[in-house]
Design brief:
Structural class: alpha/beta
Number of strands: 5
Low-confidence stretches: none
Shape: globular
Order of helices and strands: HEEHEHEHE
Number of helices: 4
Mean pLDDT: 95
Length: 162
Amino acid sequence: MTEKRKDYISWDEYFMGVAYLAAKRSKDPNTQVGACIVSNENKILSMGYNGFPNGCSDDEFPWDREGKSPEDCKYFYSTHGELNAILNYRGGSLEGAKLYVTLFPCNECAKAIIQSGIKTLVYGNDKYDGTPAVVASKRMLRAAGVEFRPYEPSGRVITLQV
């Protein structure tokens, strides 16, 4: 009898891989963020990436980080990847779900994560750690009982050919 494969990827590798793949859809020239929401049964519920809302043309709104005025910058217009994943879900409640996201969420996304009922957050990068938005985010997530932890890469290299 043939034995099963032993070199398959873990659930964390799979779902974080999906989040990183979703990030590749972002048209943001500076930061691409992807997110994947998963049920307790390890079923993908939703995905998202950072970009402009439906109906707002990528060619007509600014992608700049800085400008002459705040309305000349992307920050008033772009939707973060984790918020898009929450808003893209059409199946009912996200209570108890797990969120995989490539960048630690800001304070605004933390509010949406908490309010949607997501209970676990696995993040790939925390490059804004210590900034007011992330300090506030972590404070709210802790207060609301949302567990968060960094993704721990296995070192395995996975290549997709399409």
